[in-house]
Amino acid sequence: MLPLGCNSNTNASGLDESGSEWRQIDLSKFTGVGALSCKDRVLDKLWRTVGQRIYRCSLLGFSRGNQVRAALLRLFGATVGTNVVLRPCEITTPRNIHIGNHAWIGEGAVLYSLAQIEIGDNACVSQHAYLCTGSHDVTDPFFGLVKRSIVVRAGAWVCANTFVGPGVTVYEGAVAAAGSVVVRDLPAMSVSGGNPCVFIKKRQLRA
C-alpha cells in the first residue's frame, strides 16, 4: 500500500526514483582548484611534504612550539601576529591564513584554507574545530569547486568540534558552542549552538 499521492516510482518524500537525471553527474570532469603559479605549486608541495609534518610535530614543546609554528607559517606566506598559541593542527594552504595577535588555534583543528581564513586578535579556534572554505556546487554535474572566505573576528570563540562553512563570518566576541554546525554569520557578542547553529543568548562579560 502506497502513501496518498505517491505512485510506484515515487518514495515517501515525493521524489521520483525512476528518473535518470543523476546519470549526468560525472566526477571525471572535475576541473580541480584552478590554475596556480609555478611558485605557489612549489610552495604547496613543500608544505605538504615537509612543512606540515614539522608543524604537526608534538615534540616541540609549548612555548618553543608556538614560535616554530608561527615562523613556519610566515615562511610559507601566512600573516601571523604576536604572542599566538599554535598547537599541532592541519592547515591546507598557509598563504591564505591571517592570524591576529594573541589568537589561539587548538590541537587537531583543521583550517581548510582553499580561500582566505582570517582569525582576529584574541580569537580562539578550539580543538578539532573545522574551518572549511571549500565546497561543491550541487547544481553542477561536474561537481564544480566553490571557495569562500571565513572570518573569525576579534574575541570570537569557535569551540571544540565545531564546523564552520564557507562564507561565514563569526563576528566580534561571538561564541559557537561545541559541536555546532555554523553555516550562517553569527552576530557579535552572541552565544549560538546546535545543528544548524542558532542564537541561544547574548554573551555578557563579567566586569
Automatic annotation (TrEMBL):
Presence of the UniProt keyword Kinase in the record: no
Protein family: Belongs to the transferase hexapeptide repeat family.
GO MF assignments: O-acyltransferase activity
Assigned EC number: 2.3.1.-
Lineage of the species this protein comes from: Bacteria, Pseudomonadati, Planctomycetota, Planctomycetia, Pirellulales
UniProt GO cellular component terms: cytosol
Name of the protein this chain belongs to: Acetyltransferase
Keyword Nucleotide-binding attributed: no
Origin species: Rosistilla carotiformis
Keywords of the record: Acyltransferase, Transferase
InterPro entries: Hexapeptide_acetyltransf (IPR051159), Trimer_LpxA-like_sf (IPR011004)
Superkingdom per UniProt: Bacteria
